[in-house]
Amino acid sequence: APLLSTHDLSYTYRDGTQALRGVSLDFGLGAVTALIGANGAGKSTLFLNLLGLLKPSGGQVRFQGQPLGYKKSALEAYRQRVTLVVQDPDRQIFYARVADDVAFALRNLGLPDAEIQERVEGALRATGTEALRHKAVHSLSYGQKKRVALAGALALRPDVLLLDEPTAGLDPAMTEDMIDLLGQLREGGTRLIVSSHDMDFIYAVSDHVFLLGRGEVQASGAPADVFRDA
Ligand code: ADP
Ligand code: ADP
Question: Which residue intervals define the domain ABC transporter in the entry (predicted)?
Fold first, then answer.
């Protein structure tokens, strides 16, 4: 079974908006899957369903072949395996200092201090933010904050990392750094799902692309194929 997949997934908001209409996606078709589509296509709604933050109106999200459980304890365990990095890092700052911020989710889990320290060190190293560890998060550049937010997610050692617009707001040099960093994560075995409007970025990082439109899958394939037909 694929690590993460959706099966005829539908989602309708309270006001009747049908944001997803029977979406079946296999996130095991590549190490890095890109989600593209115009504003309103349903990308955010899909992410929220993949994270278990919204419960499908129809169909299923499956992890390791099993339908997600929506009880609190099952979701807490699941969210260590499938983790989100939000688009705007200013919305994901938990603590003033970088090292404490990166440790936030691990402290919440009640892990032993030695393990927290080891994981935080690993996450800082992986994101090239070791030198920032004692700095105040608010003093960092936007690109540095994005790296610190990513470090916080990596510290959980998830199987799947969802990244919402990872290059939005980054200049070309920082975008190159982000591409390198995602390449390293991929080599390390983390599966990545990226939502992005940046076609050059998607071309550089992804193996498989799903094009969403009006809540449906409109194309699925290698970037070169999807972009040629789009
Ligand atoms: P995308 O992330 O691709 O821009 P969304 O998942 O945000 O797409 O939106 C899909 C559809 O659902 C759009 O028509 C949007 O207006 C609608 N939508 C999103 N959030 C809500 C909400 N909280 N209540 C009602 N409709 C919503
Ligand atoms: P949304 O409501 O879709 O999350 P935002 O209003 O948060 O959008 O951000 C709009 C755009 O500006 C996004 O591309 C976001 O990445 C970028 N952005 C947000 N904050 C900053 C910042 N401090 N510096 C540079 N770009 C930013």
Answer: 4-230
β-partners of residue 85 are 163
ipTM for the complex? Answer: 0.76
User: Which helix (DSSP H) or strand (DSSP E) does residue 108 occupy?
Assistant: helix 98-109
Cβ atoms of residues 153 and 161 within 8 Å: yes
Q: CB burial class (10 A; 0-12, 13-18, 19+) of residue 15?
A: exposed
What ligand is nearest to the CA atom of residue 43?
A: 1
> DSSP per residue over 22-61, as a string?
EEEEETTSSSEEEEE--TTSSHHHHHHHHTTSS--SEEEE
Name residue, tokens 């989602």: 11
CA of 168 to the centre of ligand 2 (A): 7
Strand partners, 213: 216
Mutate to test the pocket of ligand 2, among 44, 45, 88 (most ligand atoms within 8 A of CB): 88
Cα-to-chain-centroid distance, residue 102: 16
pLDDT tens-digit series, residues 96-108: 899 999 999 999 8
CB under 8 A, 24+ apart: contacts of 135-138: 135/97, 135/98, 136/96, 136/97, 136/98, 137/93, 137/95, 137/96, 137/97, 137/98, 137/101, 138/93, 138/96
Is the distance from CB of 10 to CB of 21 less than 8 angstroms?
A: yes
pLDDT tens profile 139-179: 999 999 999 999 999 999 999 999 999 999 999 999 999 99
Nearest atom in ligand 2 to the alpha carbon of residue 91 is 7
